[in-house]
Specification:
Helix content is 79%, strand content 0%. The chain is built from 5 helices and no strands.
Length: 118
């Protein structure tokens, strides 16, 4: 979980350009996430399954990584949406993470040779 979290943090940090329009910034982050999931399917699948079926310690570690991701995204959103209340940015960030997590299951079930479905 630590390795996965650290790698995702590095990737997301490198993919966020607050000078881009918001829709482009989000699209870039999603592309980075999708590529990471597909390139690290075994590790991501383990994490995905462990979110609900792992040991309590593993579930806590995953929950902490997800909270960090929400916090990081909310912070980045503050740079492009300074007029939006902090609590609203947290909600948006939480929704983004939730959608990505839900999409992860779908990404992992795609046939390897069918990138057109992305």
């Amino acid at each position: 979980v630590d390795e996965l979290g650290l790698n995702l943090r590095r990737l997301m940090r490198g993919s966020i350009d607050t000078k881009q329009p918001l829709d482009e910034m989000i699209a870039t982050c999603i592309d980075v996430y999708v590529d990471y999931v597909l390139e690290n399917a075994n590790l991501v699948e383990f994490m995905n399954q462990s979110r609900t079926g792992g040991t309590p310690a593993l579930q806590d570690a995953i929950r902490n990584e997800l909270k960090f991701a929400v916090s990081r995204i909310a912070t980045e959103l503050s740079l492009v949406l300074p007029q939006v209340k902090s609590s609203d940015r947290e909600i948006v960030a939480s929704l983004i993470v939730s959608v990505l997590l839900e999409s992860t299951t779908d990404l992992l079930s795609l046939p390897e040779d069918n990138e057109a479905l992305l």
